[in-house]
Amino acid sequence: MKNSKKTKLNISDRILAATFLKILPKRVTPNQITIFRFFTIPFIALLLLLEEYQWGIILFAVSAFSDALDGALARKNGKITKWGIASDPLADKLLIGVTAFLVLPMFFSPLLVFVIIFIEMALIGLSYYYRTYGKRAILMANRWGKTKMLAQSLGVFLTLLYILWPVAGILIITQWILYLAVVLGIVSIVTYSL
After folding, report:
1. Which of 86, 90, 62, 63 is closest to 74 using CA atoms?
2. Domain range 2-192, CATH class
3. If we measure between CA atoms, which residue out of 16, 115, 19, 1 comes closest to residue 73?
């Protein structure tokens, strides 16, 4: 079911509307962008497993950026759907979970990687529970979850970048970004059902 009413655009939506959304073909829908993100995940995993990091980082960056595009397009054009609300966060969690599993253990504690993936699985479980048994049929991502996704994406991206260009200090910055992502993930879980 489509929400035909346009919602208020935040600052990043307005920037994307003035830039990237202008060059996006009109026939492209937010749900198609989400499907694209699902489609890229196995290819990103394959590229990373084959140690084709240059192509893996490019595809990861495009896929992660598509998360911002589909949301901005949906809000700008009033094309928010139940399928998109449920599937967009799942695509994000799979993208981060798979990439984190393959890349982060190379440089960071397995415990940190486990916690990041566990938080994503917990959020998927909570979403399923509330959709199936809860009072509310659809739960949209809150600002904590969106900020968590941004921190996770940045942390994974910087780790991939470090593989290609091992500049001193990147891993220290990345580790703190991933710690921040864990804190934001915990806050997201706590506030998800409020």
Report:
1. 86
2. mainly alpha
3. 16
Whole-angstrom distance, CA of residue 139 vs CA of residue 97: 21
Q: How far is CA 8 from the centre of its chain?
A: 21
Give CA separation, 31 vs 21, 42, 65, 134, 180, in Å: 15, 19, 15, 25, 29
Question: Angle at the Cα of 129 (from 178 to 187), degrees rounded to 5?
Answer: 30
Tell me the average pLDDT of the chain. 89
The helix (H) or strand (E) run that includes residue 130 is helix 110-132
Q: What is the pLDDT of residues 134-151, one digit of tens each?
A: 665 555 667 888 899 999
**H-helix or E-strand spanning residue 194:** none
